Each structure stands twice: as C-alpha cells, then as structure tokens.
Amino acid sequence: MFDIQTFIAILATLLLFLTSVVLSYDRLQFRNYDLPIPQWASLLLAGITFGVLVADQILRGFVRFEERCRILEEEQRRAEEENFRIEESQYRLQEAEYRAREENFRIEEAQYRLREAEYRAREENFRIEESQRRLEERNRRLEERNRRLEEAERQARRTRIETRYRIALIQYQLDPNPLHRRQLADILALLQEYQDTL
What we know:
Elements: H1 4-24, E1 27-29, E2 34-36, H2 39-174, H3 178-193
Antiparallel strand pairs: 1-2
Helix pairs in contact: 1-2, 2-3
C-alpha cells in the first residue's frame, strides 16, 4: 500500500542530499561531461527541498496529531466502557437491592401470615377448650343425672321389694297357708341375696 508520508520523507532526504551537493559545488564534472550549476538552480532546488521538508514535518505533525487523537479516542472509549461497566454494576446493584426488598417483603408477608395462622390456631384452641369444657360440664351433669336416676331406681327397687315383703308378711299373717308361706320365703331369700346392693 502506498504511504505518502514515507514517500515524502524519502524525497526530502534525496532532495536534501542533492541540495547539499549543488550548494557545495559550482559545477559537476563527470568523465566525459562537465555540467555547470547556475546559482538560481541551486536556490530553486534549496527552496523545493525546504518546501518538501516543511511538508514532511507538517505530515509528521498530522500523523502525531492523528496518533494523539487515536490515543485520546481509545482512552475516551475505555473511559466510556468503564463508565458503562460502572453503570451496569450500579444497575445490577439496584436490581439486587430491589430483589432484596422484594424478598424482605415476601418474608414479612410470610411472617404476617404465620402470625395470623398462629392467632387463628389460638382462637381454634380456645374454641376447642371451650367446647371440651362444655362437654365436660355436660358429661358431669349427665353423670350426676345418671347417678340420681340409679339412686332413684335403687330406691324404687328397694321400695318394691319392701312392699312385696310387707304384702307377703301381711298375707301370711292374715292367712297362713303354704302359698303365702312360700311367697314370704321367696321374698326373704331375695332380701338375703341382695341385701348388700339394696
């Protein structure tokens, strides 16, 4: 690929060499040929050489300027990339904070639900205890009623047996026949058998 700066540098070096030769000599002598160098040609060549040297320095300045611009652009690109990475990390940090806040909210919500469930469980336990207390009270009343009924039944049985005994005794006293005697003996045997339970 053709590089103008290299071409101008080489041209400037050759022209500088030619100018130094032309300015050092009034004439150039070759074996068969003698070439006189007029002063105006030497000055013209010196002017052209100076112009080429100036163009070479300007091009070198442009190249240094472009190199500096490229370096600055590279640094700016790196700075922008760094800023982008910083912004991206800040975004990730904000996203992580948002997720953490969401997680805290979920935890608080779960704790609230747990407290609510505990409250409902305590209420349910209280209702169960209250139901059990009522059942125990009802069972106690039923047992008391059953005890009274059993007592009344025992009393009624005792009264019936005593009544049968009195009737059998009176019948035997009024009419002492074998039938009344057997009835009285049966009642007395019954009284002896069940005397502990009556």
